[in-house]
Amino acid sequence: MRIGVLCSGGDSPGMNAAIRGAVLRGVDVHGFEMLGFMDGWRGFHDGEYLPLDRLAVRGLSPRGGVILGTSRVPPFPGGRGTPEALRSVAERFRALGLDGLLLIGGNGTQTVARMLSDAGMPVIGLPKTIDNDLDGTDYTFGFDTAVSIAAEAIDRLRTTGESHRRCMVLEVMGRDAGWIALHAGMAGGAQLTLVPEFPETIEQISEWVLSVRDRGRSSLVVVAEGFRLAGSEAGAVGTQVTREGHDGFGRPRLGGVAEVLAPLIEEHAGVETRATVLGHVQRGGPPTAFDRVLATRTGIAAADAVARGQWGMMAGLRGDRIELVPFVEAVGRLKTVPAARYAEARRNFG
């Protein structure tokens, strides 16, 4: 069998380990011929690919980024999954002599995988995203690394904040789901965590900051980039704070909420406040051991699914097992922070 591997969307720690797991199982155990398309769907459409064998994936587990490259180039001509566009992808698939396709990506990529599967193409999904917002899996590889990087940033900001008696605001990624903020804030002992799912007023935030000050401490505030401020004085933070331009999916680019929130806290609480935007540091560098293991197991499960002909599935983590989840159960809605999880953390704010 000739199996293609394609990465799409933003990079995520563990992608190389997933490719390695799939190739070692696919080539050495099942006897597949495997090839990786360069820069996502661009390589698929241009016919640019890298033959994948044991030598090609040697030493990949600890490496960050992805050797194949990834991009937000749309899979369909014209950017829409019309019947004609789906047929065009299927024709390209046949022209490349493929028997199946492994798609490594987040919600958008797995949604495309479902569309291709529904159109009759043999596809298996491997879920990656640092945001951990993909339904159908308990955790996505890349998330644990992003949380670990954010938690280390909290540790470092706390010492400088306490030295100057300042409130420090750390902005982490999370457009629509606040999983990184929630977990990093808890791991780092942040005094409050602000997530997109649950707006808070500047009055409430200031009350928490003052409570921390009155105990002789300096506040550490973690805020997800998609957080919205509630209340009559929401102002610029009443909607998501955006930068210039749009991302590869045509959405406004987020970023800078911490820089808007910090002066508001200083104004309302009277506490000197500084903002730090962590940005793409969260995606970079070696993946954690957890992400390496999860990604490798996911790649192995995907190759085994190909050998069994279990197409139309995503290899998701359920408990401590990698299970095949039908695309219909894996995509269609974002996995956001539940009210109970936020309430659990919120009781300790301030």
UniProtKB/TrEMBL annotation:
Residues reported to bind ATP: G10, R72, V73, G106, N107, G108, T109
Per the UniProt entry, the Enzyme Commission number(s) are 2.7.1.11
**Subcellular compartments:** Cytoplasm
Residues reported in the UniProt entry to bind substrate: T129, I130, D131, R166, M173, G174, R175, E225, R274, H280, V281, Q282, R283
Binding residues for Mg(2+): N107
Q: Which residues form the Phosphofructokinase domain?
A: 2-305
The top EC class is: transferase
Q: Name one Pfam family in it.
A: PFK
Q: Which SUPFAM superfamilies match?
A: Phosphofructokinase
**Names of the cofactor(s):** Mg(2+)
User: Reaction catalysed?
Assistant: beta-D-fructose 6-phosphate + ATP = beta-D-fructose 1,6-bisphosphate + ADP + H(+)
Q: Does the keyword Magnesium apply?
A: yes
So which residues are the signal peptide here? none
Q: A GO molecular-function term, please?
A: 6-phosphofructokinase activity
Briefly, what is this protein's role? Catalyzes the phosphorylation of D-fructose 6-phosphate to fructose 1,6-bisphosphate by ATP, the first committing step of glycolysis.
| Family, as annotated | Belongs to the phosphofructokinase type A (PFKA) family. Mixed-substrate PFK group III subfamily.
Protein name (Swiss-Prot/TrEMBL): ATP-dependent 6-phosphofructokinase
Q: What species was this sequence derived from?
A: Leucobacter chromiireducens subsp. solipictus
| Gene name for this UniProt entry | pfkA
